[in-house]
Amino acid sequence: LTSEYLKKKLQCLKDFHKDTLKPSPGKSPGTRPEDEAEGKAPQREKWASKLDFVLSVAGGFVGLGNVWRFPYLCYKNGGGAFLIPYFIFLFGGGLPVFFLEVALGQYTSEGGITCWAKICPIFTGIGYASIVIVSLLNIYYIVILAWGLYYLFQCFQPELPWAKCKQPWNTEHCVEDTVRKNKTLWMMTNMTNFTSPVTEFWERNVLSISNGIEDIGPLKWDLALCLLAVWVICFFCIWKGVKSTGKVVYITATFPFVMLIILLVRGVTLPGAAEGIKFYLYPNLTRLQDPEVWIDAGTQIFFSYAICLGAMTSLGSYNKYKYNCYRDCLLLGGLNSGTSFVSGFAIFSVLGFMAQEQGVDIADVAESGPGLAFIAYPKAVSMMPLPTLWAVLFFIMLLLLGLDSQFVEVEGQITSIVDLYPEVLRRGYRREIFIAVMCFISYLFGLAMVTKGGMYVFQLFDYYAASGVCLLWVAFFECIAVAWVYGVDNFYDGVEDMIGYRPNSWMKWSWTIITPVLCMGCFIFSLAKYKPLTYNKVYEYPDWAIGLGWFLAMTSMICIPMVMVIKILQSEGSLIEVSSIDDHTSLYIVQVFDICEMCHPLQILYSPNIW
């Protein structure tokens, strides 16, 4: 091969890039001429206003993890010292990948699968992997909302049902907090295993938890109805596409911030709040020597930014082509991380109060995940004046935080699939019917998590199906596809064409080197530090359940190499040609196809700057 021959190939690819991806005047990007013909699917919608997009993204990634995961990780991993790895992963991984996905969706005007088919078909598996992850996530994440709705209903009683040990589900081991304050009674009670009324309400009434995943038990019909209710709400939030989503988020994305501010003000005015906040932020730099601290920081960033799920790409695809997504992505990133940080003050001020009231260390009451939302915080509000009011406000905030994250993720899933078959699913009411079918199927799968053994199934999905390992794997290949195959300079050209200027070179260096290194390093350490799943550090899952968990994880990760192999087998010509590129007789391995294959709309590899 001569250098002139290769230059012709490159020029042909650049012409293909301009003709295929850059929109013509008056047309939305990604619009195909055949779509405009009579009888074809209608063009994709656009956001009615910029604020619709901003609030949808804010609602999508400001969710439960900001409130119940970040504060706990911060205290667990060295307090203020945890912010060092957190910000390294934020600026080296979270923000760059977040902007990449939004910009990619806006540039191609395609959802989470077809956007990759358009710019780099050999990496279309990235889109399929994202859809598998978000589909599994949608099944179990909404179960948290069902629990929250059940708690909200229970708040409307004369007395909070988890405040006293006088309910039918309580056992002889139930001990109220007033007993713990009495030292003599507490010493007598402490001789046996005690449980609090809020713990028994959660485990014996809400969950009616069985002895293990082997004993799945019957359905909890009250939870099944709550699950159905939140799925119906989710359906009506997205059934009209961005027309409905863009309006619902004005409530679901803003009201939680109001509730968070109210709870923050209430929390910092409680006795013991200062000790709780000190416990939250006091730096312990020695914790940075532990690799698990860095793993927690990396996985928290990818969870909290809702990246590698196809949702951000789908939301970006509804932007107008000239929208300045770079500016708003940076602002939204600040909002997301700022919310996580402020949530810690709201949560730990209340935990400090609860620890003081019980006469125990804060470490004894600090929990993460469902333990914080359904045990620790309800217990704290039961000790406050006007407990019903604060419980109602907390669970409304919890529901709205989770609801907009849920329907944004479902919207991303639906958009990605509809864009695969636009001629079929965009006609008439077919999109609405398809959404209803997908919601109903997800509801049926979710019923396994509202049985008496459902908590074990829920944890299995949470630990494996949408784990940080899966997200890191997808993020790594996203950066490789854009920076090393499609070409980071070409992507920058596209972004410049949209927003009118080139983003800071920090993005380019992140996509090219920093983010892939961080993702792969965290991925490897996560596997090296892997521990089999347990429940409450007591129950050990059987081998078949662990195997099922890894199967769920692999269903997404296998998509990327599998689609690569399929694309290569479907192509014609040699994949690797060894050639002298210049007159200095240097040998390079060049991933190219025959010139006709490269310039065809079905070309599988696009790497104009690989040389």
Helicity level: 55-70%
The CATH class name reads Mainly Alpha
How many domains in all? 1
Cα gyration radius (Å): 26 Å
Could you state the oligomeric state of the chains shown? Answer: single chain
Pairing-aware structural class of the strands and helices?
mainly alpha
What is the number of beta strands?
Answer: 4
* Distance separating the two termini: 14 Å
Shape: globular
Description:
- With 611 residues, the protein is mostly helical.
- The chain has a single domain, classed as Amino acid/polyamine transporter I, CATH 1.20.1740.
- It is 66% helix and 2% strand.
- The chain is built from 27 helices and four strands.
- The strands form two sheets. The protein has a two-stranded antiparallel sheet. A two-stranded antiparallel ribbon has the order 3-4.
- Helix 5 packs parallel to helix 15 and helix 23 packs antiparallel against helix 24.
- The longest helix has 34 residues.
- The protein is globular, with a radius of gyration of 26 Å.
- The relative contact order is 0.18.
- The C terminus is likely disordered.
